[in-house]
Amino acid sequence: MLLTSPVPDPQLENCLVSGPAHIGEGINALGEHVRRIQSALNELDDAGLEVDGIYGGDTGDAVENYKNARHILSPGQTTADRIVGKLTIKFLDDEVFEFENTMPPEKGLVSPTEAGLPHDHTLCPTPPRVLNPGPDGRAQHLGAPINPIGNAMRINIYGEGETDYVGFTDFATESQHAHGRPMTSTLVHGCASDICVRSSPLSAVTLNEIRRLAQSALVGGCRFTYASNQAQFMTPRADILSLGKAIQQHRIADPSDPNNTAFDMEVWVVDMF
């Protein structure tokens, strides 16, 4: 709606389909279309722009930062330029649509989008640590915990950095799958207030470690979050429910293939016994 209401803007519509209609400093640089771009950058990237409809240096800086963060590059480029062309306006349009149709993640327990809570996503890890990056080449946060209890250690079993920004540390429960992660066996009993497993199986060893590491309810308790899709692992519902009381359960469509339910992420959040 931000980019199309109350009526579609002809400059933005042209920019979406025509290379010569790109927008930048000194190029189609004044008008309502620039105001909408500035508003989108403020909403999506906290750019802090004055929404004045003038494509000046600050707007150019914000566009360059937005494009670099998402690796929006033309052929032959190694860093982003400062113009809004067909690919950039498509990214803005898609992200604004997602923003407008998603419950603010601050109100939930897991991220319903790949973006997660507002944070500096440019600091999130990249391959080889990340095996399944998002479209920008960095760790994506779909189905990852947000708003943890946070009064003790936060553990992401077989994580790949997607929860670093909310204070989790990646661990492994079995050495053959560690791939450089430290082992949970080095941690003391009852040390964790938040534990998550995302797109990994729940083996008997992992379940036993989750129970061992969970902080007692007498000192604050522990919350466990599990997320996966059927294409990778069937959700072990009985095992999850054996850990405690489910306080949240839902499905999140894969933004890259929303019509294929096999790729819907099933998410469970449990307050452990």
In words, what does this structure look like?
The protein has 273 residues and is an alpha/beta fold. The chain has helices spanning 10-17, 32-45, 57-70, 86-100, 204-213, 237-241, and strands at residues 153-157, 169-171, 192-198, 223-228, 244-252, 265-272. The chain has a six-stranded mixed sheet with strand order 2-1-3-4-6-5, covered by helices on one side. Helix 5 (204-213) links the parallel strand 3 (192-198) and strand 4. The longest helix has 15 residues, at 86-100. The mean pLDDT is 90.
Outline of the structure:
The protein is α/β, with parallel strands linked by helices and 273 residues long.
Rounded to the nearest angstrom, the radius of gyration is 21 Å
Helix share bin: 10-25%
Fraction in beta strands: 5-15%
DSSP summary, beta strand count? 6
Q: N- to C-terminal separation?
A: 45 Å
What's the layout of helices and strands?
Blueprint: H1 10-17, H2 32-45, H3 57-70, H4 86-100, E1 153-157, E2 169-171, E3 192-198, H5 204-213, E4 223-228, H6 237-241, E5 244-252, E6 265-272
Parallel strand pairs: 1-2, 1-3, 3-4
Antiparallel strand pairs: 4-6, 5-6
Helix pairs in contact: 1-4, 2-4
Looking at this protein, list some descriptive labels.
single chain, 273 residues, 6 helices, 24% helix, 6-stranded mixed sheet, alpha/beta
